[in-house]
Write a sequence for this structure.
């Protein structure tokens, strides 16, 4: 039997703030945070066979094959509590796979949130993004800098820039988003599950709007 444990899908172009908000929301509500980009980067860092397979797709800004990502997500969807899905599904096939994985666990998508923001803001945000090499905390040299340059506030790890945040690769990722992920936005809209958020506001303001939507998705 299906229940109403929240399963929130975050949709939006690269740099829209999905990861930042998914982390805040999952902590606030005690939900699992399933971030396929983070999971893939962990595989890459550990040089696993999956990481080796994913590397060239990610560096080109293309999607990693669906079956690889689906297997990774299946292992993370415990079904014990709700989840925030960040970066999955990214095409219609993945949306169907997600429906199946959830229904096997007595769950379903309860809300999809689209982060709306202009492309020029995204390119600026991504060129200023730095990540911690140890704990993956995300910073922005313009809007959310660390206290000490190059050092993670949280764990003291060193900060690095993602290879796919180079302007050419960002443009490719935006194209992939338009062609493959925007149909997923339409998929959830047609099912009455979609809400949109203006993502070009301060992090706290977006977070407040998101919490209000999750509390009252109707
Ligand atoms: P992934 O890591 O998922 O990248 P993405 O979707 O392109 O999203 P980003 O992480 O770039 O941005 P975000 O929206 O999370 O923004 P963030 O919060 O970091 O995927 C990377 C690659 O992995 C893909 O290209 C693909 O190859 C592969 N992959 C992943 N999932 C896959 C799947 N399902 N299928 C196949 N392949 C897959 O914020 C960005 C910056 O802005 C930060 O610096 C942040 O501090 C700052 N910021 C955030 N919010 C604000 C705000 N409100 N105001 C000002 N600054 C802000």
């Amino acid at each position: 039997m299906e229940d109403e444990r929240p399963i929130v899908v975050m949709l939006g172009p690269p740099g829209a703030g999905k990861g930042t908000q998914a982390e805040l929301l999952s902590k606030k509500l005690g939900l699992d945070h399933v971030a396929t980009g983070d999971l893939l980067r962990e595989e890459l860092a550990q040089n696993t066979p999956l990481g080796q397979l994913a590397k060239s797709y990610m560096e080109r800004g293309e999607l990693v094959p669906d079956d690889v990502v689906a297997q990774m997500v299946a292992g993370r969807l415990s079904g014990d509590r709700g989840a925030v899905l960040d970066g999955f599904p990214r095409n219609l096939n993945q949306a169907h796979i997600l429906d199946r994985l959830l229904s096997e666990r007595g769950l379903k998508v309860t809300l999809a949130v689209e982060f709306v923001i202009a492309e020029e803001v995204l390119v600026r945000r991504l060129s200023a993004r730095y990540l911690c090499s140890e704990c993956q905390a995300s910073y922005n040299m313009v809007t959310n800098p660390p206290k000490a340059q190059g050092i993670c506030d949280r764990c003291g790890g060193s900060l690095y820039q993602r290879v796919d945040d180079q302007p050419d690769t960002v443009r490719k990722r935006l194209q992939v988003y338009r062609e493959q992920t925007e149909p997923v936005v339409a998929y959830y809209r047609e099912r009455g599950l979609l809400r949109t958020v203006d993502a070009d506001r301060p992090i706290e303001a977006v977070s407040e709007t998101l919490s209000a939507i999750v509390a009252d998705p109707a």
Q: What stands out?
A: The chain has a mean pLDDT of 94. The longest strand covers residues 111-116. The CA atoms of residues 6 and 215 lie 10 Å apart. The beta strands are 7-11, 32-35, 83-86, 111-116, 129-132, 138-140, 159-160, 194-198.
